[in-house]
């Protein structure tokens, strides 16, 4: 089957925004985190997004990738920001992952959550080696630096309008704010 575009990412790395932006340009509706992927269901010519820790992890995903699928890997270098994003939502269960927030929680780091973020980050890097494809880094894609942005888009390897993609991934649209929301 194949010819899918598959975004595989660590959590809180901007994968939803990236997938939506790619889908918009390629006129493909994304399938987000399908729980039946790799379990006998066959997808053809779809845009699919996975978070690495779901669905049996990297090994199951590797087995599900067809040779002509386009795979995009994404992670985030700032693990503390990943942790804080997860932790904020954990403390504010009514809050969606996909809305603005200001991190103001003062408590010791929950090492198990932090370690899980590190594991996902390292797993993306290992998957990059195993599949022999580059991985994208949040900080280089969601940036004001056009050189870093363009290098990241080159790694995507799809025919995308860079100006539109830059607008869709504008750092001003990131969910985490630097000031309390009532001061913005």
Describe this structure in words.
By secondary structure, the chain is of the alpha/beta class. The chain has a domain at 5-76 and 124-174. Helix content is 41%, strand content 12%. It has seven helices and five strands; from the N terminus they run E-H-E-E-H-E-H-H-E-H-H-H. The protein has helices at residues 15-26, 57-64, 79-91, 111-131, 138-141, 146-156, 162-168, and strands at 5-9, 30-32, 47-51, 70-75, 135-137. A five-stranded parallel sheet has the order 2-3-1-4-5, with helices on both faces. Helix 3 (79-91) packs across helix 4 (111-131). The longest helix has 21 residues, at 111-131.
Short structural description:
With 184 residues, this protein is an alpha/beta fold. It has seven helices and five strands, in the order βαββαβααβααα.
Main beta sheet: 5 strands, parallel
Fraction of residues in H or I helices: 40-55%
SSE string, helices as H and strands as E: EHEEHEHHEHHH
Order of strands across the biggest sheet? 2-3-1-4-5
The number of helices is 7
User: How big a fraction of the residues is strand?
Assistant: 5-15%
Per DSSP E runs of 2 or more residues, the count of β-strands stands at 5
N-to-C CA distance? 48 Å
Overall SS class: alpha/beta
- Rg measurement, Å: 16 Å
List segments where confidence is low: pLDDT < 50 over at least 5 consecutive residues.
Answer: none
Shape assignment? globular
What do the pLDDT scores average to?
A: 89
């Amino acid at each position: 089957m194949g010819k899918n575009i598959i975004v595989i990412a660590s959590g809180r790395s901007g994968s939803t925004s990236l997938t939506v932006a790619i889908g918009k340009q390629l006129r493909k509706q994304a399938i987000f985190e399908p729980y039946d992927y790799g379990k006998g269901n066959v997808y053809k010519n779809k845009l699919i997004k996975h978070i690495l820790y779901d669905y049996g992890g990297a090994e199951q995903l590797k087995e599900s990738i067809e040779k002509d699928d386009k795979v995009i890997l994404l992670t985030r270098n700032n693990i503390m920001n990943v942790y804080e994003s997860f932790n904020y939502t954990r403390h504010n269960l009514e809050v969606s992952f996909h809305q603005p927030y200001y991190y103001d929680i003062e408590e010791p780091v929950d090492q198990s959550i932090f370690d899980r973020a590190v594991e996902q980050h390292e797993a993306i890097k290992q998957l990059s080696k195993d599949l022999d494809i580059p991985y994208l880094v949040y900080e280089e894609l969601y940036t004001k630096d056009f050189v870093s942005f363009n290098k990241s888009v080159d790694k995507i390897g799809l025919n995308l309008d860079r100006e539109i993609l830059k607008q869709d991934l504008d750092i001003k649209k990131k969910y985490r704010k630097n000031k309390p929301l009532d001061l913005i």
